[in-house]
């Protein structure tokens, strides 16, 4: 598969896990973070080596063809509006979830109706020429780090447009070790987010464990 140039905005557990796997697969990975000199950013550099760029979001986006939004969901809108010109015309994967909604669910043990987990509409409005996908949001970081469950490869559910960009996104999913399952175009984003709600219910609300649960479609 060809080498890709990937900007990962955010250096938390999800972003760093994905970046580690994609760098190991031979891609050029750049992390865009608020403070490149922070302890977390420097720890990431020590782990991944000097060949991985760690800079500002603008630095990372300027050298990429693919952008992965792996920041807390509540900062996505500001990030998108600030860097819309650098996101436009790219493949953009929104992996962020609005954490306050999930935290409220964990405290009340009940999902509230109609609370969006994504800022996809903001992204579409400000970067209308981007090819936008919703992926890598339906689990915690643990299934990305270890996607095999009793020897069975977990599925990764996503949505986004058909075409060449879909092939790229599925390549990236496969390189993480997951099996890509497309649920439709971006109008199916709520279906993808419902997969997250199911995973949170099983892994966290029912206490089965973040590293013990993933999902698989069985067919015949």
Which strand order spans the largest sheet, edge to edge or round the barrel? 3-2-1-4-5-6
Q: Tally the helices: what do you get? A: 10
* CATH superfamily placement: NAD(P)-binding Rossmann-like Domain
State the low-pLDDT regions, or none: none
Give me the strand/helix succession: EHEHEHEHHEHHEHEEEHEH
Output the structural class.
alpha/beta
Q: Please state the oligomeric state of the protein chains shown.
A: single chain
Report the biggest beta sheet as strand number plus sense, adding barrel if it closes.
6 strands, parallel
Key terms:
220 residues, alpha/beta, Rossmann fold, six-stranded parallel beta sheet, two-stranded antiparallel ribbon, 17% strand
Could you give the topology of this structure?
Elements: E1 5-9, H1 13-24, E2 28-32, H2 39-48, E3 53-55, H3 57-62, E4 66-69, H4 76-82, H5 84-87, E5 91-94, H6 99-108, H7 120-126, E6 131-134, H8 142-145, E7 148-149, E8 152-153, E9 155-158, H9 164-176, E10 179-182, H10 189-205
Parallel strand pairs: 1-2, 1-4, 2-3, 4-5, 5-6, 9-10
Antiparallel strand pairs: 7-8
